[in-house]
Design goal:
The protein is an alpha+beta fold. The protein has three domains: 5-44, Double Stranded RNA Binding Domain (2-Layer Sandwich), CATH 3.30.160; 50-100, Classic Zinc Finger (Double Stranded RNA Binding Domain); 106-137. It has five helices and eight strands. It has helices spanning 5-15, 33-44, 62-73, 90-97, 118-137, and strands at 21-22, 29-30, 50-51, 58-59, 78-79, 86-87, 106-107, 114-115. The strands form four sheets. Strands 1-2 form a two-stranded antiparallel ribbon. A hairpin with a 6-residue loop joins strand 7 (106-107) and strand 8. It is extended.
């Protein structure tokens, strides 16, 4: 579910086969403009790197540099409503908040067991697949 139609339309592009952002230098194409921008910078040296003044790590997007610097500085402006744990990014906080939810939206294709996080189902799926293949051999 999405708060706005724009957010829904943005998400729908994840499922679309078309890649509307094409490179003018080669045959590569991308779903998202930020992916094209990174490609142009890394593959064709077109654009500007953003460099961390602390460790000299380079970023293709200014927002990524800002997030990186917050981690150096220990700034954690995002606070979980449930447990008051603090995070550097809203994304980190949203990923954490799953621990407070009973929603399990990831399912093993072999046994049907549900999981809260995609990582959990991926790890389980590998083990479950291996056990299922072993059982088939017996």
């Amino acid at each position: 579910m999405f708060k706005t139609t724009d957010n829904l339309m943005h998400h729908v592009r994840v499922h679309a086969a078309t890649k509307e952002c094409s490179c003018r230098h080669c045959s590569e194409s991308f779903r998202w403009h930020h992916q094209l921008k990174s490609h142009l910078l890394k593959s064709h040296n077109e654009g500007t790197w953003f460099t961390c003044h602390i460790c000299q790590k380079k970023f293709s997007h200014k927002c990524d540099l800002k997030e990186h610097i917050r981690r150096h500085e220990g700034v954690k402006p995002y606070v979980c409503d449930e447990c008051s744990k603090c995070f550097c990014t809203a994304r980190d906080m949203r990923q954490h908040q799953v621990v407070h939810s009973d929603v399990k939206k990831f399912c093993c294709g072999f046994c049907g067991k549900d999981f809260k996080r995609p990582r959990g189902v991926k790890e389980h799926y590998r083990r479950c697949r291996d056990v299922t293949e072993f059982d088939d051999m017996l």
